[in-house]
Amino acid sequence: MEAKAAQMLGFSTLIHYQGIERQSQGSVKLSRGFREPQKLQALVLQPARTSCSLRRAAPLEVACSCENLPDLTLDSRTFQAPLDEGLILKTKSQEIEPYLNGRCIYLVGMMGSGKTTVGKVLSQVLSYSFFDSDALVEEEVGGTSVADIFKHYGEGFFRDKESEVLRKLSLMHRLVISTGGGAVVRPINWNYMHKGVTVWLDVPLEALAQRIAAVGTNSRPLLHYEAGDAYTRALMRLSTLFEERGEAYANANARVSLENIAAKLGYEDVLALSPTAIAIEALEKIEGFLNGEGGHYAGC
Ligand SMILES: Nc1ncnc2c1ncn2[C@@H]1O[C@H](COP(=O)(O)OP(=O)(O)OP(=O)(O)O)[C@@H](O)[C@H]1O
Ligand SMILES: O=C(O)C1=C[C@@H](O)[C@@H](O)[C@H](O)C1
């Protein structure tokens, strides 16, 4: 099945993870089976803990170490595998979709963590509908923006509306929901969200601050205080919020750490990760959760 998948994805070579030695970041040594440097378009397969899983091929520097051949290091750019993330995403979503049984996916995470961006990708690939709970609150309050709701009615009023929106959503199926960054603070909201599968997008605060500084804080009232440049302001406020909420996010069924994805794929900067790469990781983590639920899902 793995060979078929590699062929389907257009890779000429399939390398099992056990057959390579990691040299340094982004570089591997092929320990057997490669007699000479070849023009590889390699798919590296790394068995996931719970089921076989297609790993994205990171840029590879290939070194040959067969008998009679000196180790050779080849230019990683020459051997960078084409990355059909879209196809991997589709394959993974088709694998797990039946086991979700229509349960909704709730994305939780700090402001700017990508819940909306990644949520839309997930909803599309799972053929689910997408909802943003902040947008639903705005509708409930006659089209008033979140910033104006905070300003005119206060945070408590907003939180009540948010809980009401989550209660209504918990009665529905086949939705991906981007929740408000603070939805995790009220225990009652977890009662609603745990009707589905909850996924925490865990993004380093510095990266969040960079994203938020780029778009401004006007629509994010809880970030709209401190003096200083936009990045420092956002970082200070995010740090305080995260101290209050870190534990609450950890209630989610699955944690998607952008730092972990970046390390796996050989990126130095989490901001370089595409929404698709993050969505693939989210599906893999959801798969892990479904596996742990009591053997309902055995993967491939
Ligand atoms: N993987 C990504 N690559 C590039 N830009 C991204 C990525 N994820 C999110 N962004 C950008 O970061 C900003 C915040 O993302 P998004 O609105 O999806 O986050 P959010 O978690 O829904 O935020 P909030 O809770 O504040 O509504 C947006 O400008 C979005 O385009
Ligand atoms: O982190 C938060 O508390 C918030 C995040 C946004 O999504 C909005 O729900 C609102 O601005 C509050």
UniProtKB/TrEMBL annotation:
BP terms from Gene Ontology: amino acid biosynthetic process; aromatic amino acid family biosynthetic process; chorismate biosynthetic process; shikimate metabolic process
GO cellular component: chloroplast; cytosol
Catalytic activity entry: shikimate + ATP = 3-phosphoshikimate + ADP + H(+)
Pathway as given in its UniProt record: Metabolic intermediate biosynthesis; chorismate biosynthesis; chorismate from D-erythrose 4-phosphate and phosphoenolpyruvate: step 5/7
Cofactor section: Mg(2+)
Record GO terms (molecular function): ATP binding; metal ion binding; shikimate kinase activity
Record SUPFAM superfamilies: P-loop containing nucleoside triphosphate hydrolases (SSF52540)
Localization per Swiss-Prot or TrEMBL: Plastid, Chloroplast
EC number: 2.7.1.71
Pfam family, one: SKI
Keyword vocabulary terms for this entry: Amino-acid biosynthesis, Aromatic amino acid biosynthesis, ATP-binding, Chloroplast, Kinase, Magnesium, Metal-binding, Nucleotide-binding, Plastid, Transferase, Transit peptide
Entry keyword annotation includes Cytoplasm: no
PANTHER family in alphabetical order: SHIKIMATE KINASE, SHIKIMATE KINASE 1, CHLOROPLASTIC
Entry's family note: Belongs to the shikimate kinase family.
Function: Catalyzes the specific phosphorylation of the 3-hydroxyl group of shikimic acid using ATP as a cosubstrate.
Family annotation (HAMAP family): Shikimate_kinase
Protein's UniProt name: shikimate kinase
Lineage per the UniProt record: Eukaryota, Viridiplantae, Streptophyta, Embryophyta, Tracheophyta
